[in-house]
Structures
1.
Amino acid sequence: MEFTVQDLIQALLPGAIPAPVGYPLAAILVAFAVLSAFVAPLAGVTSWLERRVWARMQSRVGPNRVGPQGILQWLADGVKNIQKEDIIPASADRKLFLLAPYIVFAGFIGAFVVIPFGSWLIPADLNIGILYLLAITSLAVVGILMAGWSSNNKWSLLGGMRSAAQIVSYEIPAGLSVLTVIFLSGTLSMQGIIQAQGWAPQDWFIFYNPFTLVAFFMFFTSALAEGNRTPFDIPEAESELVAGYVTEYSGMRFLFFFFAEWGNLYVIGAITTTLFLGGWQIPATIFGVTMAEHPLAKGVLEFTVFFVKSYLWVLVAMWIRGTLPRVRVDQLMAMCWKYMVPIAFVCLFGTIVLLVIWPDGNPALSLATLGFTTLVLVYFMWRVVYQIMHSRPELYLKPYV
Amino acid sequence: MEIPINVLVFYLVALVVVGSACIVAFSRNIVHSAFSLLGTFGGVAALYVFLGADFVAAVQVLIYVGGILVLILFAVMLTHRISDIQITNRTVGRIPGLAAGAVFLGILVYAIAGTDWAKAKEVAFEPTTAVIGNLFLGDYLLPFQIAAVVLLVALIGAITLSRKEIKE
């Protein structure tokens, strides 16, 4: 079933309104609805969940007052921030200061155009999807530099500079890892990349060969760095820079930056899922039921599979933020240029060589890679259980407080 | 009068491109000039979309906004007291400048008037990525390789200029 948002607009458009006027209006309305009904709660709930998860990791409670377990905390934050005075520093560059949050936000929201939530649930399946995604997310760099410079504050400027240098540098290992996947799929379209994979883990690109497994880690690490996440959050390192490029912002403008950051976390997970983890792929038949005969159930299942997979990486990013210390600026740059770029090149060339040997992939190699990863995960779990059994910490496993 | 929406959008985009280019040229504040390039680069990408060149449009944003604009901003922001420098060239006055500008404008107008503008055909919105790739590695392999070597030379030159000599 071919079905896109554009078809929906065309079907619902009343005949009385001429298409040149009605179409853009309807598109704006749909974009507004999607923004407020999906992206805003997503970023909001992520912000609440993140604070709760860190709190548990640090033996604290976290926000638990607004609504059940504090789940409505993000609404309270939004209401509070929208009531606040919009302070513009007297010596700031007024125009650029006001414009900067919108550019960062546009770069983030533009990414949702090509995120495939299901086999037909995608705003626009551009044939240059992944390239568009890399391009549109680079808009945020300009916004961050703008915020840093226009605040007329040394900490803001330093934060903006650090952020831009970091994003521009880490784009290279990220781009090379994406290129590895493009070589395997032979297309730049997001749906095409997913269709080149299967539902079973051994058909995912992450386990295609050992090189893609490494490329996956390169990509995820670079994506965290591009999203200014711990351990790469030196642009807003509280201990050195107050809050980096957002130091002078207050109220809703401040919130826009963090809205983009938390929403971006999900975008990172969604791209990772699309490129390496088989996206929305589900088996053609489940318990003898042919999925193609039930389009609605199929769509819901695909969306669920995609959402769970991509949200898993949001949780991993929270876990990383809760456990790893921040790296220094020089360590950050050395890690990118001296280690990650060469490793990404090795992954790329290794994949090319294996593609020449086995143009259609090697199932045994994929299974071996999957088995190796499973063994590492099992060993990791075993170590965790061993530590808990032997160090006898006072476990407090009650999840709700 | 019915104006097709794509014509309207085209003129809007053209306005953004020309307008921000004017800010780049005339703004007294060099940082504002640099940030205005965002509108110019983005608008040019939109013009590529109008021409059905999807790949070029995405690469335009990726390279120019994500790379070159950020580099220009870095250069502007990291240059010490860049706004205090008198930009006007004292040795050559305004009149020779105006004359040179007029001559250049004349050449441009002459070239534009002399060109036989083919009417834009129906733009086919088809995938262009594979075609571009085949042409780069087929018919235009030599120019492609020469461009790559030129970029490599520029990279080595930048490293040679910026590195510090370590004295024993």
Note: Chain B touches chain A at residues 3-5, 8, 31-32, 35, 38, 54-55, 58-59, 61-62, 65-67, 69-70, 73-74, 77-78, 127, 129 (CB under 8 Å).
2.
Amino acid sequence: MMHLLSKIAVTAPSLLAQTEAPAAESRELTGTFWLPEAASTSAEATDFAFMAITWLSYVFFVGIVIALVYFVLKYRQRGNQVVYQADAPLHNTPLEVGWTVLPLLLVVAIFFMGFKGFLDLSTPPRNAYEINVTAYQWGWSFKYPNGATSSHLVVPAAQPVKLVMRSSDVLHSLYIPDFRVKKDVVPGRYSYLWFQCDEPTGIVPEDEMATTATGHHLFCTEYCGTDHSNMNRKVFVLAEADFEQWEEEQARWLDKVSDEELYSFAGPRIYSKCANCHSIDGSANTGPSWGNPTSGSLAGLGEIWKRTVEGSTPVTGGTKGRPGTTLADYIGSGKLYETPEDYIRASIYNPGEILVGGFGPNMPHFRGQLGDRAIDAVIGMMKNLDQFDAAGKFVGTGG
Amino acid sequence: MSTIDASTPTAVAPAAEPVDNYLTYTRGFLSWALTLDHKRIGVMYMFSVLLSFLVGGIFALLVRTELLTPGPTIPGVDANLYNQFFTLHGAIMVFLVIIPSIPAALGNFVLPVMLGAKDVAFPRLNLGSYYLWIIGAICAVASLLYGGFDTGWTFYTPYSTTTSTGGVIPVVIGVFILGFSSIFTGINFVVTIHKLRPPGMTWFRMPLFLWALYATALIQVLATPVLGITLLMLIVERVAQIGLFDPAMGGDPVLFQHFFWFYSHPAVYIMILPAMGIISEIISVHAHRHIFGYRFIAFSSVAIAIFSFLVWGHHMFTSGQSPLMNTLFSAITFSVAIPSAIKVFNWLATLYKGSISLNTPMLYGLGFIFLFTIGGLTGLHLGTLNTDIHLHDTYFVVAHFHYVMMGSALIAMIGGLHHWWPKMSGRMYNESHGAIGFWLVFIGFNVTFFTQFMLGSHGMPRRYYDYQPEFQSYHVISTIGSYIMALGFFWTAYYLIASLVSGRKAPSNPWGGRSLEWQCTSPPPHDNFKTTPSVGDCYDFSVVHWDEAEGGYVVDRDADPETRSAH
């Protein structure tokens, strides 16, 4: 897999620019004064409408302000005495009808411009490439027809792409400014969004995706709670052949990892999905930390594997009819979970059943996203947490 | 109508005053707390609303300061706290400040005097609505003790029914109660305008501010109950777990949006219509010039009120509502643009051949035209379907509605406060201080919010604690602007308070107005008018003269053909 990524990276000139100038902090806005880079086939129509309305606004605004300033200067009253002009008109029907009808005609034209563009935006072409999207607090899961999943959006260039979107908790909204597209993701409904981008952007290795300047921004634009502003991801556009290769690798990579490397290599990659809420160094976050026994919001809980085995962790919200106050009440032969591994798998597939004390039921489930080998990799990583640094990078037993 | 004062009989006005005024008519805390005088209720509203404005403004400054840099900026402010900041800012400014500011505070004071009535039709209901406002505000404050709330002022489900912050129910109850306060004020104004007009005050002789308040009151009465029932449903879902909006329980979250905006879009016009009314008054009085196209302005108020009920869906173009609905809502939305444009053109034409005094209220009036034009024109970008898809829920929307809700509605309120300040307080403030305050607010406002148009059109989403580094320079400019604006408001508070202590005594008619409130003394007597006032053409300034001895303007009634016949 590394081999493929480096190969794609070499073919992506923008990535080279990125490696030469890694100063991501001083990034500038792209595009024009008003609009960002236009990267989709529908952006042109939207931008035309935007600029047409903007120029119309300039004309009206400048006209109104000039008239305002001119009248104020010309008819300014010096001193206190009113200078009354008896011939000042009280109304003027032709003028008033005129400034009613002219704006009316203009807005009718604007309406049709927007209407036509909107019809194109809301009608996905039949041959569109479909990607399933699940939005959750606080991230995205993109699932491809061959079973591949990704937390950043990777799409083929030069063909229409249709996102079939659903939410597993609250409202979200998927927005790609460079494509001028946006659609709410509503729990209990499916919604569609489509676009076509002709220009490949290249791609970067997975652990650099969050910070790279390569690719287009993807934002959540419907307020969804704590990490609403951290649901931003990247869109990478790949030429067709590169895309197929990426999709294939993405679907199969876990199978190719050797059993020995499963926790050290696959673990951190999967952990990147968890990192938003679960820290490794024990620092407070939305979910309980995986690591550090001494520091953190719930001091003394111990590393995740230790506290699962020892079972002294306080829990809340136990399943009905099974009262208990610590993990030990639920883990063990004859109890709710036979083994600690069972508990961890259940917490990933069906979170909210048993909650670590002090945390709310915020975690989305990962059924259908993480298979047995992925769960194995996560559990393996938890068992050997001392071999990883705070960012989840494998540093081995020496570190 | 009766203007019974509830104070104790012993607390009568001092006999030494030849003309009583409502401020000194009776004394003591209870004489204010239990007053039925619309002017005192208006002053109490004004004080409460301005206090809320201070609190909402502090939250705004916290939000802007936090956004100086991407990621954490203020030590100790994390994403959860920031989410509470912008939620509180929005909820306070909408429900406690802008909606009651003009109708309940200024309207209460001005409407009966302008109309020539002694009070509103139902003085007790009026006092009741003030106390409902207080109870609603207390509920909102109480929500902070229960852990605050982080839902955004829109309370969108299912987030608002599932979020772990405990203050959601208290604040929703608070907004529910505030809704009744608003409904009662609306009913009061409708009945007052229908029933308490003195002889000669025909519908088309009413000052345009009254037309605007009338149209506003209709919206308050018709739209606010929908908000009430929606919020009750939200409470029912959160408490009793009955699925109305949450799909996990068989509800529909988009239904909540329909209900919410069915109120909250007309609510935008509860904010802007009375503001337009104030501007019609300020422009014509300070330009000493008959308002141009009176009937067009009056009818456009009513037209806007009617259209306001038919456009709520334009808040939901990306929500998954059907493309046909989007198309219809977009089309109807543009129809609101027309009456708004008419008003701007009419105000401009009113300046033509006027006699323009650049007093502080007039600066605010002209500032309003400037800001409302920007707010209105950028509304075109958002009403247009394909551009709204790009701009929806970005800072472009934030900038647009601040230009309309703050740059227009609140600026008009501040302008109206300056316009009627001599009447309310009996004191003149320092004019050059007023001009400094205006320019600080005006420049600060534009620096703060114009930058946000560019932020939004480049894709910066709203309600973000953290943002991409390329947006930072605009955010820094915007924050600096907010500090300038804050300075302007604190300066304004300073010279207005100073005027109470050391201001020159206000004449009856400091600006040269013709409507009835300028006929009574400043401040007005308890009963407003000792005798039924004579109603002339309230926009005929040919008979207005400066009187040096009076220190203000006088209306030469004998020269006025309309009032002469009434003598």
Note: Chain A has nine helices and twelve strands.
